[in-house]
Amino acid sequence: MFDDTRQWKGDAPPGQPRDLYTWTIAWYDKAVELGFIEPPFEPDDFYAWRLQGYFDARLTPSEAVQALFGCKH
Predict the structure, then answer these.
(1) Residue 73 to residue 41: CA distance in whole angstroms
(2) Cα–Cα distances in Å, from 17 out to 25, 45, 69?
(3) 10 near 4, Cβ under 8 Å?
(4) Disulfide: which of 10, 39, 59, 69 matches 54 by Cβ 3.0-4.6 Å?
(5) Where are the domains of the chain?
(6) Could you tell me which residues come within 8 angstroms of residue 12 by beta carbon, excluding any fewer than 6 positions away?
(7) Among candidates 30, 24, 25, 39, which has minimal Cα distance to 66?
(8) Per-residue pLDDT, 18
(9) Are 39 and 32 in contact (CB under 8 A)?
């Protein structure tokens, strides 16, 4: 189930911030759920840079999915 919080729920890879790791997993799950991506999906450097910016701006994973893949005005 998608969890749109920043609470830590598992083990992050060594050197990876736990809250960013959890947020990214939630973002990935939501993007798959909404049909924007299909597993396996590996973001390129530009996608990763944008996701880091969305995280730093305190967007929720759902908001970041829409910002990255949603309709642009």
Answers:
(1) 25
(2) 12, 18, 24
(3) no
(4) 59
(5) 18-69
(6) 18, 20, 21, 22
(7) 30
(8) 73
(9) yes
Q: What are the structure tokens assigned to 18, written together?
A: 């736990």
Q: Do residues 27 and 65 lie in contact, with contact meaning Cβ atoms separated by under 8 Å? A: yes
Distance CA 38, CA 19 (A): 23
pTM (predicted TM-score): 0.74
Q: Compute the residue count for the chain.
A: 73
Query: End-to-end CA distance of the chain, in Å?
Result: 30
22-67: pLDDT as tens digits: 999 999 999 999 999 999 999 899 999 999 999 999 999 999 999 9
* pLDDT band at residue 1 under the 50/70/90 scheme: very low
